[in-house]
Amino acid sequence: WSICREKRWSVWREIRWSVYREKRWSHYAESPVSNTVASNPLDIWTPSTNNIKPQIGDQFALGYFRNFNENKWEFSVEGYYRATENQLDYINGADLLINKYIEGELLSGIGRAYGVEFYLQRKVGKLNGWVSYTLSRSEFKIEGINNHNWYPALFDRPHNLKMALFYDLNKRWSMSANFTYMTGTPTTAPTSKYYSQGVAIPLNAENARNNFRLNDTHRLDIAFTMQGREFKKNGEKRKNRDYWVFSIYNVYASRNAFVVDFKQSDGRFTNQIIKTESLQTSIIGSMIPSVSYNYKF
User: Fold this and answer.
1) Do 277 and 262 form a contact (C-beta atoms < 8 A)?
2) Who's near 175: CB < 8 A, 6+ residues apart?
3) Contact between residue 271 and residue 232 where contact means Cβ atoms under 8 Å apart
4) CB-CB contact of 156 with 137 (8 Å)
5) Residue 169 carries which DSSP code?
6) Residue range 34-44, pLDDT digits in tens
7) What's the rounded Cα separation, in Å, for the pair 53 and 111?
8) pLDDT above 90 covers what percent of the chain?
């Protein structure tokens, strides 16, 4: 087990707006290690040891917050910078799955993350909602990886846009829409190939890490909610409430990439030029309608 300390300070100034700065130092007892660029149950988590040191970092933030038009609107913008130590990543060709000696597959170094976040919300009215946009970078620098140069971390998504709208059609019916857009996840891909005894072999010539990105991801979801009747037929108010939700997930059937594999065309053992193809796998690449009934008592 480990003892963790966290130091934090903040300064607020309020006139007609709020400004704050924050410095934080954190000491973590666990170090996450991921063996994939996609979320799945096979992510590897290992505790801190004599060879795997806890991750520590300092974060600085500066923000501006303001409510206006009689608090009907809320706006904020916040910039941040975080410097970290003991960031973990795996060596080239590492075997992380069911490996008793996982420490030998890891290298540690420094990291940095910085960006700016914008947020705008309309709080009242038949039409309300919010929109947020984040422009950020998250990078590692580890000796033995990427020629000891900065490279994108697995969770580096420079552009992140989210929107949510809510509209009351009448007393019983309302609708909502949610839209998300994010830059594709970084991953490592071959940059060239060479031939050995007539066989084409892919090669990462520059020994680069996370030199390629999957396609950007985006999705639109909509939902209609019908509230149950508030009063009984005899005019008495109902004690219990119910409502129906009719929703559509991924309205325009966006085929966001979950995995991208590379495949060489036929003719691998011939002297002909061999083409490389990319095969994209999407977990949910179609529109999914759903209906749910909710009862509160």
Assistant:
1) yes
2) 166, 167, 169, 222, 223, 224, 225
3) no
4) yes
5) -
6) 555 455 656 66
7) 14
8) 41
Q: SS3 of 103, please?
A: helix
Q: Give buried/exposed letters for 93-108 (b at 16+ CB in 10 A, else e).
A: ebebeeeeebeebbeb
**pLDDT confidence of residue 70:** 85
Q: What's the pLDDT score for residue 25?
A: 46
Looking from the CA of 160 toward its CB, the CA atoms found within 13 Å total: 15
- The candidate with the shortest Cα–Cα distance to 166, out of 194, 200, 125, is 125
Question: 253 in the Ramachandran plot: left (φ > 0), alpha (ψ -120 to 50) or beta?
Answer: left
Give the whole-angstrom CA distance, residue 297 versus residue 295: 7
CB-based contacts of 65, cutoff 8 Å, min separation 6: 17, 18, 19, 74, 75, 76
Give the other-Cβ count within 10 Å of 209's Cβ: 21
Of 153, 32, 207, nearest to 102 (Cα)? 32
Q: How many beta carbons lie within 10 A of that of residue 264, not counting itself?
A: 15
Distance CA 46, CA 101 (A): 11
Mean pLDDT of the chain: 82
- For the stretch 105-128, pLDDT in tens is 889 999 999 999 999 999 998 999
Burial 27-40 (b: 16+ CB within 10 A, else e): ebeebebbbebbee
pLDDT, one tens digit per residue, over 21-80 is 444 444 444 455 555 545 565 666 667 777 788 888 888 888 888 888 888 999 999 999
